[in-house]
Amino acid sequence: MPHLHDEKIKFLEGKANDVRQSIIEMLLAAGSGHTAGPLGMADIFTLFYFHILKHDPKNPEWAERDRLILSNGHICPVLYAAMAHAGYFPVEELKTLRKFKSRLQGHPHREWLPALETSSGPLGSGLSQGVGMALADRMDNGKASSKFFYVFMGDGELDCGQIWEAAMLAGKEKLHNIIGIIDRNNIQIDGFTEDIMPMEPLKDKWESFGWHVLEIDGHNFEAINDAVGQAQAVFEKPSVIIAHTIPGKGVDFTERRFEWHGNPPGLGPEDVVKKAQQGAAALEELRTLGGRIKSEHE
Amino acid sequence: METINLNPKLFDKDVEQLPIRKGYGDGLFEAGKLDPRVVALCADLTGSTMTSTFSKVFPERFVQVGIGEQSMASVASGMAAMGKIPFLASYAMFSPGRNWEQIRTTICYNDRNVKIGGAHAGISVGPDGGTHQAIEDIAITRVIPRMTVITPCDAIEAKKATLAAAKMVGPVYIRLAREKTPVMTTEETPFEIGKAQYFFVPSGAPQVGIIAIGALVYNAIMAAKELEAEGIMATVLNLGTVKPLDEEKVIELVKAAGAIVTVEEHQIIGGMGSAVAQVLSEKQPTPIEFIGVRDVFGQSGEPNELIEHYGMGISHIKEAAKKVIARK
Fold first, then answer.
1. Domains of chain B as residue ranges with CATH
2. Which residue of A has its CA nearest to B110?
3. Which residues of A222-231 are buried (b: 16+ CB within 10 A; e: fewer)?
């Protein structure tokens, strides 16, 4: 993985900003959809589509391309935006998101947009598909394979048992060219992940399933890039990158209004309730883009 | 109306018996020899799904996923995305039972070329009891767009179906039974996905058509033979494929016979009979009687005991035939 020099980082920051603008525009045009996840993952998707992926937007069928499998299909606005800006289809088309006959279905469907590696929406199935792809590739190319299979997952979908069935299989098969990216933004539809279904200690979980685990700031291009480079260099097991992200990153009226790391000691029960209410209100504001679109769980 | 090369010993008491699932194992092995893209997956049931014939000879093309049917379906989808032709097998109760949504979304919605072998389908699973008797699998597979649903009547037909599934592009479900059942066909009997065949043609003009699938085709033939001795003429059609349904043949039979009995080891709700009724009510309204499980779960017992208890025996088919003729 080539190192990121300052000029490239500046370029990526500009692209990530374009991607975010597109996400907001397309969600406003659609009037519904998911906001927090796509905005939080904009930096990572930008880095992948403009630096990491071995791909050719003009030839999406290229057999030797890396595969990017989006498991949590509901964050597809960021996928569509990154793909459009990378040249897969016109940026103008983003405004058709969720509209009748649009190639940009509410959740990705590869029949409509064949450049997609898979269709997704029902959570928990992406890792298994990535594992299947990597297994098939190993049958054909053995260790000579030069492809990587990047599976993007949300932290909420780690509730699904299927993820862990696939994690066990990848661990057993020592699939070194599988690289999982977990969007650790700590939220899911009904609230905070640690309230709904605690994930921690997440690093230990993946390690115990036979994975190499990296944990990074998902908004730091150099950190993401270095982690992917390290993951690519691990040859005896699959790797997963836990990327800590801020939901709604880049939207000033919501960003950093969430308290992501639990409640500090010394808070009374009333304070905790108040904080939870504030958190929920902030989340709702983000999810509706300040009341301008329908919330994802309506 | 003509029958095709069936087993000449079909009406002998010692007619050869083989488990239908063996045909899947043989067909998979044969398909693997013919096409290097064929791969197999199994969820800790290689022996009873007969996947072991393949996995022993082609270990490099076999994936043991453990008891994880949901993941298995999606792993197969991923392998198909890379050009493989995956065959995944488990008990029908778990696949397509437990992993229905993964089959629906990651295989069918994704249009992936994956084949699903569901063993231990039907009530004749026997002593294992109701948990293991898949009598809903036809309903849940035929409802999915793009899915082909094949219900072989014996081991030889199952082998042909498995080979045919490997050759066609698109998702296929192959329904397999556990117990040894009579071998009705021979290597020479033709088989084509989506084509039904007459397995018994009576000596006189037919008064009723019996449309059957799976091992119960044998009971249907025996019923028709007994009816013939009583002077009631019944033609038996082995449907073979539930989806796509051979409408032309079904309508041809109805035009000749004027009444239908459907016979399946499955819930009547949503099963093969429902599919036939749907076609006929649109195109050729006809009196139909349905033989199958009537909205209850199974239980432990010997296969024949259960077939009789749940109303799928030879006598039940005969009664239904007489009843439907009276309704004409």
1. 17-182 (3.40.50.970), 197-326 (3.40.50.920)
2. A119
3. ebbbbbbebb
